[in-house]
Amino acid sequence: MNKSYALIDCNSFYASCERVFRPDLARTPIVVLSNNDGCVIARSADAKPYVAMGEPFFKIKDTLQQHGILAFSSNYALYGDMSERVMSLLESRLPAVEVYSIDEAFADLTGLPEPLLQLGHDIRAEVLQKTGIPVGIGIAATKTLAKLANAAAKRWQRQTGGVVDIRDPHRRDRLLQVMAVGEVWGIGRKLQAHLLEMGIKTAWDLARADPRLLRKRFSVVVEKTARELTGVACLEMEPQAPAKREICCSRSFGHRVHALGELREAVATYATRAAEKLRQQQSLCSLLQVGIRTGLFNTNEERVSRSVTCHLPYPTDDTRLLVQSAIAGLDQIYKAGPAYAKASVMLMDLCQRHEYTPDLFAPTQPAGTDQLMQTMDQINQRWGKGTIRPGRIPTKSEWQMQRQLLSPAFTTRLDQLWTVRAGN
Question: What's the gap between Cα 61 and its chain centre?
Fold first, then answer.
């Protein structure tokens, strides 16, 4: 049986999330900013002609005002919840779904009744109706081709209705001939430059290249990419994402921090968040690294960058122990005087719970800790993040990142739910 894959990708996801609960912004260009409202990290389609990705916000304020473009601080709580809604809907409709990122997922359509093109339109309409998020869908014989078909669905949305099926070899080859090689999944700028030197300018050129030569000159990954462009499936579905081998939580501060007390609050906050991610993937941690640094671009400030690795007494996912170890590490590397701009906590040497066999004579995590952490996570999931937290973490502090243009959470906080008022 011939394989069939789909790539479902949310259109301008962050900007689309902002529009779901603000229908008045349906025709207003939008950009979303990075931490501390630093630079542009997302743009709606109608904002792209005027604003480049990565543009510093302070430099383009006049441009945004000139073109009527609204800026929003990054609202990760909202984006994460909307992503979960979209992915849950896809998983309820399709037999096998691989969540690839916060805004896109692969689906295995092999064996589903035809026409798959109509199925794509039905799914697209249902996602829009139930979540308010527009998506594009590419259907093809391989995952790489599905990614390329999705790009075509977005580029020619009016002509295609947001769904493109290129399983037919003739349609596939026509698309490969008009798509630049840099648009192929996995072909970055440096690799694209090398391919251009070889005369490989389009996806069609890459598909016709000698796969053995590509493997010899580049890697097996490039060889598989070229084979996938010819319709030979080399990449299988991964319904469950592999557990991360490292977990890092790092943020720039809203203002420069001098005091050790504020740094302790920040490090405790980051260690708590990293511990939550650790438990979500059912892992245990044996090493913890904590780091602090000053700003990189202010020549008038003393530059300091320090980090330390802390060995934990046993593999653990206990927030209390991780916070305690992180603060102990911070105390070792802290130097009074400099203005610190950023702190980080990284959990390393991770193992899955089912992979770990405790030593009979070595200390292990107490039996009651698992139940305590589970209860804490359940309460925070039900009543909101931070409902139960270490005492070192304040509800609000000056060092937290600035988000002056933050929209309401809408879906994750009871006090910020969408309010609809009846007319007179």
Answer: 26
Bridge partners, residue 400, by sequence: none
Is the distance from CB of 250 to CB of 344 less than 8 angstroms? yes
The dihedrals phi and psi of 248, each to the nearest 5 degrees, come to: -125, 140
Residue 410 region by backbone torsions, left for phi larger than 0, else alpha for psi between -120 and 50, else beta: left
> How buried is residue 261: exposed, middle or buried, by Cβ count under 10 Å (0-12/13-18/19+)?
exposed
Nearest to 290 by CA among 344, 251, 252: 344
Token pair, residue 66, equals 């000139």
DSSP collapsed to 3 states, 160-177 = HCCEEECCCHHHHHHHHH
- One-letter amino acid for residue 262 of the chain: E
Inform me whether the pLDDT recorded for 130 exceeds 80: yes
Residue 196: CB partners within 8 Å, gap ≥ 6?
181
Provide the pLDDT for residue 296: 75
**pLDDT, average across residues 139-164:** 94
pLDDT by residue (tens digit) across 60-102? 999 999 999 999 998 988 999 999 999 999 999 999 999 999 9
Among 80, 23, 79, 29, which residue's Cα sits nearest to residue 50? 29
Q: Are 51 and 93 in contact (CB under 8 A)?
A: no
Task: Show the CA angle centred on residue 157, arms to residues 155 and 161, nearest 5°.
Answer: 150
Cα angle: 241, vertex 9, 191; to 5 degrees = 75
Q: What's the pLDDT tens digit per position in 238-288? A: 866 677 889 999 888 878 889 999 999 999 999 999 999 999 999 999 999
Strand partners, 39: 56
